Amino acid sequence: MSLARMGMAAWLGCSLMVAVSTAVAAHPSEEWRTLETERFRFHVPVEAEPWARGIVQGSEVLADEVHELVGYEPEGRIDVLVVDPFNQPNGMALPIIGKSRMVLFTTPPQSDSVIGNFAHWDQLLFIHEQAHLAHLARPPRGLVGPGWRRLWLPLGLGPLAQEPMWMIEGYATWVEGKLTGRGRPNSDFRDALIRQWALEGRLPSYGAVSRPDGDDWMARTMAYLVGSAYFDWLEEREGPEAFQDVWARATARERRSFSEAFKGVFGDSPADLYARFTAELTHAALVREETLADNQRWGRLWQDYSGNTGDLAVSPDGEYLALVKRQPRQASELKILTLNDNEARFERWHEQQAQLLERDPDDVKAVEPDSLPRSPSYRLPAPQARDIRHPRWIPGQSELLFAQSTVDARGQQRSDLFRWNYESGQVSRISRHASLHRADPSPEGDWAVAVRQVHGQSQLVRVDLDDGTIEAITEPRLDVIHDYPRFHPDGEYLAYMRHEAGRWQLVERRLSDGHEQVLMDSRGEDFLSHPNWSADGERLFFTRSRNGHLDLYMLDRAAGTHFQLTQSPHIAFQPEAIPDQAGLLYLSHGRSGMRVMKLDELEPVPLAKPAVLGEDKLASLKGMDIDQRASVESRPYGAGPQFASSLLGFRWHRADRSLDLGIRGGDPVGRLDWMLAASRSSRGSLDGEVASVGWHGWPASLNMSLFRLDTALGEQSDMPHALRETFVDQEQRGLRLGTAYRQQMGLSHWRIQGGLNHARLRQAGQTLDQDWLDLGIAFQGHWRRGDWRLQGGVQLQTWRGDSDDQSWERDDWSLNLGGGFRNTRLQASWHQAELGKTAPGMASLTLGGQMGTVNNQKTQPLTLYEPAIAAGLLQGQVYEKQALSLSGPGNARLFHRRHRMGMSNAGEGEWLKVSGFEVSAIQVPGILALPEVRGIALGLGFGQVHGEGREGHRRAWLNLRYDW
């Protein structure tokens, strides 16, 4: 995965794209270590250090291989974060010219993953992300040197980082395959999927292959799978050196688009050659289908679904089928269907056809469909809208066990186990932040075996289904990956998948003494997964790939022999036996989603001799063992390496314009961030500077800042003449010491913050010393059920201070409530503020203007903000605000806000109303290893103002600032 496909040439655009993402680093307050090589700095939490040592050991050799193939070595030292934020396999490349970064996730893929074909997960992941950096961080050979770009562009991206997604992800995937002999390009899974799409006429268009947010249910995989296959096809046409020529042309002094650079090497545009590529793919798929025409072995359609459907589970009594239904941009849903033959629905269908012919004898009866929709008997929308995974029936109870991601106190996602009583509808949590996957209940139903993946270490564990107690079955190991445990019906044995020595194995383990035997070794085949026992325990079904096909197989446990059950150009996987029946259910890909198929006859297909893959190119690294990892030295992370870059902010409104310039920096983990910024307005209404430094290496963050703020609000062009005389110009110099602590509770969180402030204020020839304390506490709760969501929050804040020994105080409270369906949300909020005692220089609360890099409530404790009006337009001692907004996808919303001020009661003033459209985004601390833009916030909008003599006034605003 790469951030480069943000498709932005400037740092601003890149910042906005990541503004609403989730932080992917572990918490800065954890114990971090740094391991260095000649070209890399690896930053890892101490728990993940054993995993990181392996890739550190091989990083220089792997990088050499990547650079030779790609034809370029990135400038500067590369910082690598090793984390596990989602308990899922992934990675990220940040191809910033001269200061690139990488993020590696330690959790390995499972056996049935599209990225499950690997010898060593860490090496495959590193090669893919380093390929992004070598490919996309190449600067243009223009007149402007890299030093200038590093100074002025915090996220300076090269020309190639702005090109189509298929080129970016497809090329890195192609590189992973060339250098490892494994990966997606060498997987039967990729070939089988693409062949299936071709046979169904579903190969994506040239434009669609680069749209991860498209409507196609597998849109996110297109750039990787089809893109890498396109690169394979282009390599056969012109050779691998042609790609280096394209990259050289695309970064030349002569400015060229990617299409122009491509055409100069391949003689035709990428879109036109892609059309030829898909035509040849379709032809090859049809030829393959024809060769199997007389020897196909295939089931019948049981149910056709749109979107992604998976995780089949047949109940022990053979009456029900549980499955997980997923749709793009929708919450997943666990459904339970009856396993009848749907005869009643077919009878109704025939009756309806007969009625149509009776009304219109010239009509033509429709062809009987292979299947008709089945209505679920029970359904569970995903609690908290998090994906439901791996449902399994708990024997002897009306319950299903399933896994779902939860969020710990530091915002990291972990996979936990839950149980659902489908008759009562109750969902109970079993484990807490335990990183448990693919659990299978024992035949007694009182405990389950599960896979535990923590910091790259894998093991099988026993989980008590009543109290969640966890006991080890196998020791945690870095060199072995466990997956898909399935109990034998007698409860004495366990079948599971194990990745060891570079390949997947199907293993049987005797629980009484731990004795194991390998039942099936993938050897040359790259896909082996989905073990499931028959009801009598005499047969074991599984999925296996051979020669570019994924089919079902059956192992006779007593005889020790196995044979093939299906043979087709279509994909067959995830077999699920039906008790008291000879057949089984399985999954296959369809035109618009997954199909549930049923195989009634378990007849053998002659088993051909499998092809054997060659050894990996990097065979010398494959022999690395755990002891070698210990030789890598590490040191405390401390404040980490510091990155500095320019800072640009601005505010635009009819009343005034301002520009912020400065420098911003920090470390990749997010322990330290600092900023120097100056703000100047076009009319001199608000000028100032701030120097700020923040430390987040403890559970509570600390911040110290020095600021100067000069205000002349009467200079704003949008200020009524009657009010201009009421403003007194102010010069303020101050110091602030602040702290904040945040606690995560699932999807909800609470935050407490406070600060000590001292400022010297000059106005009307007087100099005043001010000291104040501010303290606030806020809670924001989120509750989700399926696609429905509900949220609410409350915030209390108080200021206590004195000005020349005269005390003053301000008290605020705010409340927000909202709810919505999928990406649409309706929210209402209320805010009240009251200035109690006042002192010299503390005349009143003021409303209006936009928050900026220098001016905010830390420097202006009596200011409230409304971007549609001039700063200070409303003044008073008591303030009230009511707001209503309707949000859609992203951060765009329609809003209506109204404000009023009074001296002793807010009701004394008339409502000032603003209605319009607004977009806002803010980047949270610690996000994506980008200290250069940490805390950046954007706001833009358009509104119509009514009240205070501004009936029907239309105002637009734009704001880019940095929080500190």
From TrEMBL:
Q: Which Gene3D superfamilies match?
A: TolB, C-terminal domain
Disordered: region residues: 357-382
UniProt keyword terms in alphabetical order: Signal
Q: Where is the composition biased (Basic and acidic residues)?
A: 357-368
How far does the signal peptide extend, from start to end residue?
Answer: 1-25
Look up keyword Signal and say if it applies. Answer: yes
Q: Which family does it belong to?
A: Belongs to the TolB family.
Q: What is this protein called?
A: WD40 repeat protein
Please tell me the species this chain comes from: Natronospira proteinivora
- Taxonomic classification, please? Bacteria, Pseudomonadati, Pseudomonadota, Gammaproteobacteria, Natronospirales
